[in-house]
Automatic annotation (TrEMBL):
InterPro entries, per database record: MFS, MFS_dom, MFS_trans_sf
Keyword Oxidoreductase: no
Protein name: MFS transporter
Record bears the keyword Transmembrane helix: yes
Transmembrane segments: 12-33, 39-58, 79-99
Top-level lineage group: Archaea
Domain Major facilitator superfamily (MFS) profile, residue spans: 12-115
Gene Ontology molecular function: transmembrane transporter activity
Organism: Halorubrum saccharovorum
Sorted UniProt keywords: Membrane, Transmembrane, Transmembrane helix
């Protein structure tokens, strides 16, 4: 028995707790800041609302298919893929500020053209 009457949790559980914390922390930081950032970017309050609600609408639509994926492949693979997609999406915020929109689509256009 550990100090608090329970055994030490497995390393995998600690990794899941840490990743869930950082994913939630990211949303917890972005959501309160976005209305102020909207004023800086010159977008309306309505557009800020659309941006904030897009996350919830996507979750509403994606939860059932995600549940089916978890039932089919187990929890680990969809979890890791989801974290990877979220990391790439977060990187997209940085790229969007530094790269003009047309330039950011050029690699995708080249890849589609070669197929």
């Amino acid at each position: 028995m550990g100090r608090f009457g329970i055994d030490r949790p497995p390393t995998v559980l600690l990794a899941v707790i840490a990743s869930t914390f950082f994913v939630g922390f990211g949303g917890g930081v972005v959501f309160p800041i976005l209305p102020n950032l909207g004023a800086v970017l010159g977008i309306s309050a309505f557009m800020v609302g659309v941006i904030l609600s897009a996350n919830r609408w996507v979750r509403l639509v994606a939860n059932a298919p995600a549940g089916a994926l978890v039932d089919r492949y187990g929890t680990r693979t969809p979890f890791v893929i989801g974290l990877f997609v979220e990391g790439v999406a977060t990187l997209g915020y940085v790229v969007a500020l530094a790269v003009p929109p047309a330039e950011s689509l050029r690699p995708l256009a080249r890849r589609c053209r070669t197929r």
